[in-house]
């Protein structure tokens, strides 16, 4: 069911007038960064502000921690199954109702949020805003200027120079990278760490040094070894190139993952209505180094999902 979004103002306006006012408006909020991930402050049912991460790798509207849900007395309104990256299972989590969620001068009403703990890696935050929350807006994560923007309008194709198509079968944007000339489907995941590749394709790539054990990952139902390497080839996305970059190799990932570290270089705008994403940067060549902390996997999306399975990145 589509969410209701309306402009939050200090006085009452007719809905039609508010909609007309919003057509050419841009609403923005500061973005705080931790380990490269985007955080914003939100109001929930008029209370707060609370610190949330914007996670385009989560295919739902929102998630709140059990502690915050209890503090605000958010009522349960059902259950949902969360995806597990290993494909070996999942877990059920309650849905709670948020009557009003305000962010960047926009109010979202009637949000069903997942009640679940956030990853340890995320740190001190009380929830996340998922990708589908912004279905009715152009969402821009401007990492260089530390700003999040919401606007009405549409993106236009440009022959895949800066603007690329994506699909979102499970509410998570998936686009195509090229590694050593090979097309590779990748999730565009602002809550993810690094540039990660599925183990199934790792043997087809060239490396400066062969992959070595990097860390131990953990999902909802299994633990697994993560490997890392530096590519001998480049990763390309339109006019942009990541040269001989550090990559992580994950046995639990069915797709590649373009996470927050490579996103740091861009202002990224998503248009869910036209299924397009635009990447803007001040240069065209980049190098990725090893992240400060290896990523700990909790609820990454599954390529073949079960009915009512929600990917949480």
Low-confidence residue ranges: 1-23, 294-310
Structural class: mainly beta
The averaged pLDDT comes out at 83
**Number of structurally distinct domains:** 2
Order of helices and strands: EHEEEEEHEEEEEEEEEEHEEEEEEHEEEE
Q: Total number of helical segments?
A: 4
Main-sheet strand order equals 17-18-21-16-22-15-14-19-20-25
Give the N-terminus to C-terminus distance in angstroms. Answer: 22 Å
Number of strands: 26
- Using the 3D structure, state the CATH architecture of the largest domain: Beta Barrel
Residues in helices, as a percent range? under 10%
Strand proportion:
over 45%
Question: Main β-sheet: number of strands, strand sense, barrel status?
Answer: 10 strands, mixed
Summary of the model, kept short:
The chain has four helices and 26 strands.
What does this structure look like?
This protein has 2 domains: 4-151, Beta Barrel (Cathepsin D, subunit A, domain 1); 163-310, Cathepsin D, subunit A, domain 1. With 313 residues, it is mainly β. It has 4 helices and 26 strands. It has helices at residues 15-22, 66-72, 199-202, 260-263, and strands spanning 4-7, 26-30, 32-34, 37-44, 47-55, 62-64, 76-83, 90-103, 106-115, 127-130, 138-142, 147-151, 163-165, 174-179, 182-188, 195-198, 207-218, 223-231, 234-237, 240-243, 246-250, 256-258, 267-271, 276-280, 285-286, 309-310. It is 7% helix and 48% strand. A hairpin with a 4-residue loop joins β17 and β18.
